[in-house]
Structures are given as C-alpha cells and as structure tokens.
Amino acid sequence: MIASIRGTVRHVGLDHLVVEVGGVGLLVHTTPDTAAGTRTGQEVSLETTLVVREESLTVYGFGTTEAKAIFEQVQTVSGVGPRLALAMLSVHSPDDVRAALAQGDLVALTKVPGIGRKSAERLVLELKDKILALGAEPGMPPRAGGAAAEADDAVQGQVREALQGLGWTAKQAEGALATVTKGEQPTDVAALLRAALRELGR
C-alpha cells in the first residue's frame, strides 16, 4: 500500500498530477480542487490510496486524511468504486459528504454523477450509523457563486471533457457551462471547472 507520497510536481492536469518521487514520476488521480491548488515545480505531500486491479495499479491522492478516509469508506458499499468515490469528493467536500450520509440527504447524494436514488439510499443505509458514530458535523453541499463571462472555446472544451470524464453527460456539462459563463467569468480552466462543479452540485 502506498499510504502517502511527497515529491515535486512535474505536471498538473485538471484531475490528476504527476509527482516525481525518487526519480520516478507517479500519476496521481485527484479532485479538481486538489489539482488546482498545486503548481508545477512545487513540493507536494499527499495522502494516497493504491487501487490494485489485474490490469493496473492506480494511485489516488488527497490533500487531507479526512478526504482519504471518506474515499475509502464509501467504497465499502457495494457498487461504489474509486471513480465514483472520487466523483463524490469532486462535487462535495468531505464534511458535506459526511453530513449528507448522516442526515440521509438523498438530494445531495444524487447530485453526484453515477449515483441514483437507490444507490444513495444504499449509501445512507450502510454508512449512516458509522458516520454518526464518528460525529458528523451538519452541513450542506456548496452552492454556486456568481455567474461568469463567456470563456474561450479551448478552455470550455477542456472543462467539458473533464466533466464528462467525471461521469456527467455531454448535455449536463453543456448546461452547467452555459450557466456559469454568463456575466463575468475567469478564463482559467481550473476556476471554470470549479464553477461548473458547483453548478452541477445544486
């Protein structure tokens, strides 16, 4: 198990990083917020989980032990794999995921692409008691902030691709971008992606 890594960031993607550790570049899948908070050339320390499959070894990285714990905990529920667990943390903060599970907030849970009502009910049924035992703080998913100005086509294309990679449909991605690109909006890819994620989490 690779429980954590520390090294120099060699590449920053929308939902992944390449971190050089001991001369080896490790591809680390992470949330858009975590990726956006790093810069090429800086040293970074991440809590990580190694997911082993027959055909691959995949590393998932998190800025906090809390996020890592949620990532691992939700995967104890049947039907929830690492990609869906990462999508949950891309839409909601760890505190908001815990609160949704503790309060049985199916509306918040079904905002995550790939989670329908039945899956949300199963998550609450299997994890509510465990979450309450840890003392979950009440909270709600973040709401979208102000709307934004029309972004460059190339920037929107990257954000659209990232949203679809996280599990939303092309139509959902287009709708979110249409909403957040009204008014003044930074053309930075990471900022636009965060705004679209907040909109999809409404």
Automatic annotation (TrEMBL):
<dbReference type="Pfam" id="PF07499">
    <property type="entry name" value="RuvA_C"/>
</dbReference>
<comment type="subunit">
    <text>Homotetramer. Forms an RuvA(8)-RuvB(12)-Holliday junction (HJ) complex. HJ DNA is sandwiched between 2 RuvA tetramers; dsDNA enters through RuvA and exits via RuvB. An RuvB hexamer assembles on each DNA strand where it exits the tetramer. Each RuvB hexamer is contacted by two RuvA subunits (via domain III) on 2 adjacent RuvB subunits; this complex drives branch migration. In the full resolvosome a probable DNA-RuvA(4)-RuvB(12)-RuvC(2) complex forms which resolves the HJ.</text>
</comment>
<dbReference type="InterPro" id="IPR003583">
    <property type="entry name" value="Hlx-hairpin-Hlx_DNA-bd_motif"/>
</dbReference>
<dbReference type="GO" id="GO:0006281">
    <property type="term" value="P:DNA repair"/>
</dbReference>
<dbReference type="Pfam" id="PF01330">
    <property type="entry name" value="RuvA_N"/>
</dbReference>
<keyword id="KW-0233">DNA recombination</keyword>
<keyword id="KW-0067">ATP-binding</keyword>
<feature type="region of interest" description="Domain III">
    <location>
        <begin position="156"/>
        <end position="202"/>
    </location>
</feature>
<dbReference type="InterPro" id="IPR010994">
    <property type="entry name" value="RuvA_2-like"/>
</dbReference>
<dbReference type="InterPro" id="IPR012340">
    <property type="entry name" value="NA-bd_OB-fold"/>
</dbReference>
<dbReference type="Pfam" id="PF14520">
    <property type="entry name" value="HHH_5"/>
</dbReference>
<feature type="domain" description="Helix-hairpin-helix DNA-binding motif class 1">
    <location>
        <begin position="72"/>
        <end position="91"/>
    </location>
</feature>
<keyword id="KW-0227">DNA damage</keyword>
<keyword id="KW-0378">Hydrolase</keyword>
<dbReference type="GO" id="GO:0005524">
    <property type="term" value="F:ATP binding"/>
</dbReference>
<keyword id="KW-0234">DNA repair</keyword>
<comment type="similarity">
    <text>Belongs to the RuvA family.</text>
</comment>
<dbReference type="GO" id="GO:0048476">
    <property type="term" value="C:Holliday junction resolvase complex"/>
</dbReference>
<dbReference type="InterPro" id="IPR000085">
    <property type="entry name" value="RuvA"/>
</dbReference>
<dbReference type="GO" id="GO:0009379">
    <property type="term" value="C:Holliday junction helicase complex"/>
</dbReference>
<feature type="domain" description="Helix-hairpin-helix DNA-binding motif class 1">
    <location>
        <begin position="107"/>
        <end position="126"/>
    </location>
</feature>
<keyword id="KW-0963">Cytoplasm</keyword>
<protein>
    <recommendedName>
        <fullName>Holliday junction branch migration complex subunit RuvA</fullName>
    </recommendedName>
</protein>
<dbReference type="InterPro" id="IPR011114">
    <property type="entry name" value="RuvA_C"/>
</dbReference>
<keyword id="KW-0347">Helicase</keyword>
<dbReference type="GO" id="GO:0006310">
    <property type="term" value="P:DNA recombination"/>
</dbReference>
<dbReference type="GO" id="GO:0000400">
    <property type="term" value="F:four-way junction DNA binding"/>
</dbReference>
<dbReference type="GO" id="GO:0009378">
    <property type="term" value="F:four-way junction helicase activity"/>
</dbReference>
<dbReference type="InterPro" id="IPR036267">
    <property type="entry name" value="RuvA_C_sf"/>
</dbReference>
<keyword id="KW-0238">DNA-binding</keyword>
<dbReference type="InterPro" id="IPR013849">
    <property type="entry name" value="DNA_helicase_Holl-junc_RuvA_I"/>
</dbReference>
<keyword id="KW-0547">Nucleotide-binding</keyword>
<dbReference type="GO" id="GO:0005737">
    <property type="term" value="C:cytoplasm"/>
</dbReference>
<comment type="function">
    <text>The RuvA-RuvB-RuvC complex processes Holliday junction (HJ) DNA during genetic recombination and DNA repair, while the RuvA-RuvB complex plays an important role in the rescue of blocked DNA replication forks via replication fork reversal (RFR). RuvA specifically binds to HJ cruciform DNA, conferring on it an open structure. The RuvB hexamer acts as an ATP-dependent pump, pulling dsDNA into and through the RuvAB complex. HJ branch migration allows RuvC to scan DNA until it finds its consensus sequence, where it cleaves and resolves the cruciform DNA.</text>
</comment>
